[in-house]
Request: fold
Amino acid sequence: MARWLVKAALQKGMSALPASESVNYLFQRHVSRSLPASEAAFRRKFERATAHLRAYEEHGPGRPLGEAVLYEFGAGWDLAVPVAYWALGAERQLLVDIHANLRPELVNGALERLRRLAPELEAAAAREIRVPDAGAISSADDLRERFGIDYVAPRDARSTGFEDACVDLVTSTNTLEHIPAVDIPPILAECRRLLRPDGVMSSRIDLADHYSYFDRGLTPYNFLRYEDSRWRWLNSDLLYQNRLRRPDYLGAFVEAGLAVVEETATRPDEAGLAELARLEVAERFRGYTLDDLAVTALVLVARPA
Reply:
């Protein structure tokens, strides 16, 4: 059996267990050892945080970052992106997760990497960064007191309960692709409600088959082969992939009242495009152009329409 099918079966089984998120965490930490994430992954997250802030500086209200309120949904296990925001000057952040995924030991690992890699990260960002002291955090209260990060979970990103127009920058980093299609418009509409009239939203979306990252026998388009009836049995709640393509996300932003002001799409080279053209995709994907199917990553910067 292919490696990805084994992983899909394991995750499908774990998703049916009580406290499946905790079981998945323990599995990734102690069995597959995919947590904590690699140093290379931490560098990528820092780079993506820097890119989000560049979008704010270019398209936002001109309000200094230290005076702005940031909001991110789907912050993840180690909060590497919010930690990067703090290092780059953010003073106030609101984070929500559908599950309480915060793991202080992983956050402490991200803080340690920030301290150790500070000169390199500062050079890459071309700006000064703050370095945290050596004290470890042990709770969400520590995050609020030391870093201005309010971590709220479990909390539904479709209805956060935060007041209207209280946020200057909304970000999501490799999160939207894991959300069921029906839930994306209301989540984006909530982001629109939270944004100030001159605020900005910056989203990075990974459109590739995530199983291709550890099974080199797969292309980024492997999951496009499966009809919904079959994909349902392969798609685990613990690594849910909605398989939406570029036009779907653009339409969802418009539906939510967000006007896209900048778009960056990552596409394959000619060999990759030819490989995709040879793939027999499922019926639901046959109405897309080859160019739209080919997009493997998408960065959308939007403002309230």
Summary: The chain has eleven helices and seven strands. The first helix runs from residue 3 to 15. The two ends are 49 Å apart (CA to CA).
